[in-house]
Design goal:
Elements (H helix, E strand, L loop, with lengths): L10 H9 L10 H18 L2 H10 L29 E5 L10 E8 L14 H19 L8 E4 L13 E7 L3 H8 L1
Length: 188
């Protein structure tokens, strides 16, 4: 498929895909997908993996020696409570976002802690879902003053088979019509 034949995801489409947990349907523009795969191959000689690059160049986090980049990295963190300490997470613009309309920005919240999932289904545990919901509400929804959150903020966590960086737990956040100044406040 060529870029000209590809339509970016709209807000309504994203809302439906996320509500239906149809995350495998999220796509990048064809040219961006090719560029992304090429970038991965270019960084491997210097960093070994996209995960190592992310730790060293974007997050500036040092995995603990017990870590294994092929599975899950472990980090020293301040609190066992997910999202309770700003030093235990980092919000970044997604360097390789899904193809979305121009009014949408794709952010990623990287966390040092584990986001617990159900072993059988791979879905978030109720406790993890509540922690993410609360974080998204206080960090994103409240900040932009959205009365109807799903009109301006959506979030999801890819299941492991869809993650391009499976070694570090993270949540995707999509925001709509947010000024650059607010995006900068979130991402630094």
């Amino acid at each position: 498929m060529e870029d000209n034949d590809f339509s970016p995801h709209t807000w309504e489409e994203l809302r439906t895909l996320i509500a239906d947990n149809n995350l495998a349907a999220l796509r990048r523009k064809p040219s961006e997908a090719v560029t992304y795969r090429s970038w991965i191959e270019k960084i491997k000689p210097a960093y070994g993996s996209a995960t190592n690059y992310l730790c060293q160049e974007r997050l500036h986090w040092n995995p603990l020696p017990i870590s294994n980049a092929d599975t899950r990295l472990s980090f020293s963190y301040e609190s066992n409570i997910l999202f309770s300490t700003p030093g235990d997470y980092k919000i970044l613009r997604n360097d390789w976002p899904y193809a979305v309309t121009p009014d949408i920005t794709h952010l990623v919240v990287w966390v040092k802690n584990r986001i617990r999932t159900d072993r059988e289904t791979g879905d978030l545990t109720p406790e993890s879902r509540l922690a993410v919901d609360n974080f998204v509400q206080t960090t994103f929804v409240d900040r932009i003053g959205a009365s109807n959150a799903s009109d301006y903020v959506l979030w999801f966590k890819n299941w492991s088979g869809l993650q391009s960086v499976p070694g570090i737990d993270h949540v995707h956040v999509l925001v709509r019509n947010v000024p650059d100044s607010v995006l900068t406040d979130w991402t630094g």
